Each structure stands twice: as structure tokens, then as C-alpha cells.
Amino acid sequence: MKKRIYTFLIVVSIGLLSNAIVAQIHITGNIEINMNSGVFKCNVNLSNMPKLKDYSILLNKGMNIKYFKDYNNDLIKYEGHYNGQMKGEAIEYVLKIDSTSTFKEINVSYLGAFPVYTNDYNEFDYKGVIAINNQTVRATEQTKWYPVVYDITNDKLINSYTYDLNISLIDGNTIFLNGSPPKKKSNARFVSKKAYPLFLFAGTYDFIENNGDYILNTDVTQENAKVIFENIEVIKNNYSKNLGIKFTDHIYLINHKAINKRKKGSSWGFNTYPAFAFTGLNFNKLIDENGTFYNHHFRYFGHEFGHNYFGNNVASGKLKWFWVESFAEYLSYNTIEDLIEKNYLKEVLTKQLSYLKSDDIYVPLNEIESTNQIGEKYRYVLAPLMLKCFEDRFGRVKMNLVIRSLLQYAKDETLTIEHFQKSAIKSGIDKEDYKAFEKNFITSKNFKQNIIEEIKKKL
Ligand SMILES: [Zn+2]
């Protein structure tokens, strides 16, 4: 879950939706990929669709629709074939379901073909490209290789699904679908009751496993792989210990080859949690001579693994970016504080302060009306520093209790700033003390400046 830029075309009232329990889309069906021709042949069903007022179905522009059907196996009329609208990498299909039919399931059959790069290159490559070379196919959720639901009213892509998919590969021996262990098979069934964005990585490659974590398609030595897993284990265990909640996500590190020519020595990474893909990264060089991750890797993974706790489970309501990203980022401070020398945290905090400019304007959390008001700097810099101030004032023990309490609330409620207060009081923080903190660092007109001053004191 990394930085994405959101263009808000429509001003929406999220208030009505924020407490609704959103149905979890489930995808089933068959996928066949021919590694030689680059052909995808797919027939999938989306069920348990949420009730959306206005939505469309997005499919990569390289895919051709055979048909859309409803749950009665009747054809669904749709728009998008002629003069279709593009949205990112996809064409937008609008289903024309008449008011008498009950809309429960969508079946879509489609076929697409993508170039296979062997000894040649494209001018560019990025996460939104379905990239096939003579060894692997890489298709992330961003490519919309599977039908992604676009909630038009809320300008939101819904692309994390539970799944039960049969995937077969012509001329390949290994398949990975995000959230499930890779399988050394050319034909395999993948089932997950937990929703993930469907990042597919298949082809002819090997992988290494350790306690349910995997490294895919790399020439990393067994010895270095062991050390990488040990480092990952240290980060996971630190989280489990601090928060008293077991780290449950398995991690997938993937080495892939870009389809564009890249400068020697440059590396490019992206992630679709809990999978992390890298190109040009030498896994043998992820660790220093003492066998530990470099500092910035601790921080990077500290943030990313923080999403084991603050991920889809808290991604709702007006403050969703605060809960998802600011907490993951704050947790990365804990990771580096606990696992590497303290000076590095100071270095990071100093760097973070330098991003905050005097003319930046931020709306206090209690006045936030829509999700886009918590922009990237707010969610990745300012709000995590606010949480750091909170920790500095009340101590890490209480902070950890607050986090546990929030995660408990998040199980069946959309988190609000009131939950933060309730959790603070439940964790033994005096109400007046909380109020004093809130007044200075959350609701004040000068909250940004107050946070900056407070952090500076500790540097
Ligand atoms: Zn993140």
C-alpha cells in the first residue's frame, strides 16, 4: 500500500457509507496463460458484490470481452466496446442491468494477448504493465488483468478479493498468486479467505521457503536467504512482542526482470502487500557484512510489515489514510528504534521534519471531511510525527495498549478520532491529559507547528 495519487473528480458524502459493512467481493474461475504467445484466456465470476449506486468494471485494454453474464447465466448488456472510456490501463465497462433483475454475480469471459519480450525491450516498464519475458509473466492488480470494480460515486477502485481460482500455465512450471504460497505446478488451484490484491507472478522459476515466508525467482544463496529470513523474523517478532498480537501475514519477496532496458546498478521495487517485487536488486546485497539489513531496509520493511496490523482492516471512513499509512509509518519508527542504533531514528525524524514547509496547510483530523484531505505528506510525515509525540508524552507501553485497543475496535467499527480518545483512556491515560494532548497536537490551528516543536526537542 504505497503512495498513490488520487484525483477526486466528484465531491462525495462519505459519511453515509463510513459505518456500513462493505461486502467482500469473491472471485472464482479459470485463468489460462500461454507463456509463448502471451495469451490470457479467462472466465471468472465476481460474487458477493457490494451494493454500489454507480460503478463500472475495469479490464486491461489488451483484454477482449467475450460476454458478461448474470447469475442466471443470461447475457448482460454493457457499454464500453464502442468508444469505450479508458481509466488508467483499463477500459471501463458499464453494465446495463435493468431494475427488475437482482444483481448478485457477474460472470465475465475474456481473452487478451500481450507481447513476449525475449531479447528485446519496451521503452518503459512500470507496475501497470503486464510484463512477459521468456521466463515469467508479471501482472499486478494495477494492470487490471482481472475485473476490477470501480466505485464511481466514491472514486475508489475495489481490487482486493477473496479467491478460488484455477490457474494454468502453458510452458511454465511455477505459479504465485498474492497471499498464497507459490506452487511448483503448471496447473493449480489457489484459494484464499482473506482478501488480497491479485498480483500474479508465474513462469519458470524456483523459490525458497522459510516458515511460510518466500523468496521467489532469485539466485540468492541459500545462506544469504537464511539471513534475509532471519532479519524478517526479527522485525515480525518485534511487532508481535510490542503489540501482543501475533504477526500473521506471510511475506513474499520477488525478483523479476523489467521489460525495459535499465541503467546498470539501478533498481526498482514496488509492493502489493504482502508481496514485494524488485528488479535489479541483488538479494545477496540486502544485508551488510554483519548479516543484518541495512538501516533503510529496516525502515522500509518496518513500514510495510506494519500493514500486517494497519491494512485493509482499518481502510474505511474519512480518516482511512491516517489509520492505514500514518500508523504503519509510525510503527516503522518503533522498528528502527528497537532494532538499530538510536541515532538512525533521530536521522529519520530530522529528515521528516525537513519535508514540512511553513506554508503547507493541513486540516486538523477532527475537521477532516473527505479522505483526500489527508494527502501524502500528511499521512506519511506529519501524522506519524504526531503519533511519535503521543508516544513521547505517554510512553511506549501505553501507546502499544492504545494500538491494541484501536485494532480491537476496528474489527467491527470504522475508526474515528473518538476511538483514539476512548483507547487512550482505556489504556490508563488520564482524560485531562489526553485532552491537553489533543488540544495541542490534533485539534489546534497550530497543530503542525506544535508537532514540529515537540519533535525538535528530542533531537
Ligand atoms: Zn504503506
From TrEMBL:
Cross-referenced InterPro entries, in alphabetical order? Peptidase_M4/M1_CTD_sf
Task: Tell me the superkingdom of the source.
Answer: Bacteria
Q: What is this protein called?
A: Peptidase M1 membrane alanine aminopeptidase domain-containing protein
The record lists the organism as Aquimarina gracilis
